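FORM 7B - TANDEM STRUCTURE REPORT

SECTION 1: FIRST PROTEIN
SEQUENCE AND TOKENS:
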Amino acid sequence: MTSRKGFEQIYEQWIERPSAAYRKQLGPAVNLSTEAFEAFVQRLRSYRADYPTMAFWIVLDYASLRAMLCEGDADVFGSAIRSKRELLTRIHPQYLLPYLRWRKAVYELMVVYPEKVCSPLKHVFRIWVPLRTHSGQYWWFWINSLILQLDANQRITTTLETFYRDNQWSKHNLRPVEASLYAHDPKEESLNTELAMQFSLQLAELFTDAELELLALYANGKNTREVLSARKWSLHTLHEYNTHLLRKARELFVYDFKNARHFAEYCKERRILQFKPR
């Protein structure tokens, strides 16, 4: 479990420090008038009333990372969420870093494709994580995040996060931590491939060259005999590498893959740690 000190270090490393310079440069929002903003918020309230699976929503001021408006969060958590920091404390500790890695991949994608991704109300970043509710138990929630407003220099000033409750989380009911970008334009579905690539760049740094080579062999259907021949390893050495791979996979995706080959096949299917044919 992540200690309070550990959480603060993670928050500083992954949220506060990387975004500080960007947030200091933000100007006032320009793409929604006061009337248009209020009308948008009213539609949110109406939608939540009609579709109770939307448990709550939060509008965040990106400069301060504090909640400007919210609805339903007190019902879920027993008190209002006042900031991004408070929201992150509700994520199951094992899922916090996986969530932040996917979040970082999205922001890195914005740098590569600002004209595509940095558009208000256009792309929804979706991820499924367990949140601790007022009962102390964890429930699965879909988190949908999107840009709401920009300043005159096309910098993000306001974001919206909506939360849809699913079933109760259990260590016997795990699913790999995955994220995606939803766009209304079918031509931009390729952005999910780009998102996977950005995520892969982070993951590649966490694996040794030998581990990546082994995953590539598994992903390309090599059996144990072929792997041993290609790597000039003993069975004992292969077993050690498999153990290391499964440990890292568990930490990164919070999921018990059957074996290292299963993990490699999962990565290949989702274009994570993309492997060349061998």
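SECTION 2: SECOND PROTEIN
SEQUENCE AND TOKENS:
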Amino acid sequence: MQHLEQFLNFIKYEKRYSEHTVTAYEKDLDQFIQFGSELVGDFSLVEADHHLIRQWLISLMDEGMTSVSVKRKISSLRSLYKFLLREGHMKKNPTELVMMPKTGKKLPQFVQEKEMNRLLDTSFFTDDFCGLRDKAILSLFYGTGMRLSELRGIRLSDIHTAERVVKVLGKRNKERLIPYPTEIGDDLASYSKVRYELIGESNSYLFVTEKGEQVYDKLLYRIVRKYLSLVTSMEKRSPHILRHSYATHLLNRGADLNAIKELLGHASLAATQVYTHTSFEKLKKIYNQAHPRA
């Protein structure tokens, strides 16, 4: 549909949303279009009303979709109709009369410090190309808190070994420098040596496959899940869990919240403040275990 294509171009080239975000929007909106087409036949985005949108919302929840996922899909739809309204394709926004489903406050999960130390300090990793690469990936995820897309996009020239900082390209193409500890520098050096022996300088990306191609999302997920499974039984074992762990452990050790915000590349402090709730839950647990009147 023409209107959908215009919107996707808008968020991609003008709003400069990440490729992952644009894909998520497109998937949500395609699902709504399919629902509308099945319901009314000759479906047009500009002719949809709040009744149709409510029916879609109900159908999603009837299928067992969580309120968080439904809320995200309605949010995608709202963004689309705000754009169409602004461009003069519609006279009113049909999503204004649609209520968002209520969601409980969900605290970020994280791996315990002792579990991360056990993973990175024990001989779980082999000394070949894959083992050294995988350890460098795990170390960098946990040691910098960067996003999956940021790590995947790191190029050789983005690693500044003398200053021990790495340059990443975050959301909306915002660059930032993240410091990393000495031991990560050692992991990167070991990996870089075998990387050069295997593929030389044929690819400018830091992390590559054995065939010399840039690593991809599914591979990074598999690597993280594989190694976290060795030290934790928690259900979620994704790269983002390591980002949560990085922020939570920094806060627990007294790091300033504004500094964590900058390190994570958050646009506002509100996004970072969720980690204060995680730390507070830990303090409450300690209190309940230790205080005689708890």
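SECTION 3: OBSERVATIONS ON SECOND PROTEIN
The longest helix spans residues 19-40.
The chain has two domains: 2-97, 113-288.

SECTION 4: SIGNATURE
Preparer initials: ____
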